[in-house]
């Protein structure tokens, strides 16, 4: 997600267990972030701050069982799949209401999915829906409809595909597939992202840009007993170190930006405060992108040299060994990860030789963008020192998350980006999600997340073939093909995979929740529905 993502860490697994007693609803919580929330439009929002907020404000046809990556129905009552894998028919639950009080109908699903795909929305997720019938015509502007999504009646949605797609149910569980009312989108126009209307567990109550936003319980939410909290306040503009102090004083309940790196060891060694930390692994990789459309990164030898020059072990030590070095885009727990692949060894001499072979024996000057939240600027400085050893002078551009994301979405603005703070956490637990949006041709568009602007037709064909293998009996073959796809990408070296982290989230003594609340793999970074107040227990 996302996404969207901040600096996370990994050492021990400490978790607060949810009491066996029934949890009482009520109470409030305060969440801190340094950066502002850019948008709450589910068709557009795709970063760390807004991902779990958007998920809490909205509902979709599908979702995941809390705390797991198991697909289950959300506002759909059930669904069927045709024998050829090309037609999915969903029956909607009756009585599901938008926050404006209107019942959700099948036509709203058709409108919402069409809206994500139509070009004027400029959704970064557009490419996820490529297998739906009519996608190409809608993207090309030949029609205003997504032919493969129809509503035979008010409570039935039919989704037709042009080819089998192993990821389609995952895509329908994404934030981008959230169902929104057409009348609200048309009322607010481009400002809908600041006046969202969904059908989720919480609804937006107030938003003062740059200061705070509040969500309150949706009394009409269709999932009985949820959410637990009456109100959540998202405070904006708090430096992580200040937020930690406020949490320890009881003024903040959840650190949205996690534990400051400089305080991590002290917190984990503290017998009291360490109890307030919940940790667990994510499907995550932190990486450096190189824009293959900008010289000299259009030369694969230059990109391979950069891969050999970055000292990943030193970067991991900088963060108190709270990660493991990465050698490929996929994290180790993702299907398709190649355990035998060694990647590019740290080899300064060979890196220099490759630069010389590329006609750059004297090096060159470039820019490295990074998010301005610690420890990302320090990691960028480490990368800067490493590349200086092979003659590359790196100017660091440490900026807000939104600014870096925007720069990456321009074809000729950011030569290099350190993804920390925005590093990729899987939107859904499938290797396809580590390809399409961040390494595939569909993501190499203005406003997209493929910041390397890498697009290889051979690789694209391999990925499309893998995604078409929807038969569970062919899962092993599919994983093998994805493995070959990502190693082919590493031959082209559009990235420097740096490390895989584990997430540590800290909360105050005022609130509680188990991993469903604080380390849910798809409600990044939090599943707000399952956080509860100790004051009312």
TrEMBL record:
Residues 70-443 form the Solute-binding protein family domain. It comes from the Bacteria. The keyword Kinase does not apply. InterPro entries: Peptide/Ni-bd (IPR030678), SBP_5 (IPR039424), SBP_5_CS (IPR023765), SBP_5_dom (IPR000914). The keyword Signal applies. PROSITE patterns: SBP_BACTERIAL_5 (PS01040). Pfam families: SBP_bac_5 (PF00496). CDD domains: PBP2_NikA_DppA_OppA_like (cd00995). Keywords: Signal. Residues 1-22 form the signal peptide. Belongs to the bacterial solute-binding protein 5 family. This is Peptide ABC transporter substrate-binding protein. It comes from Pseudodesulfovibrio portus.
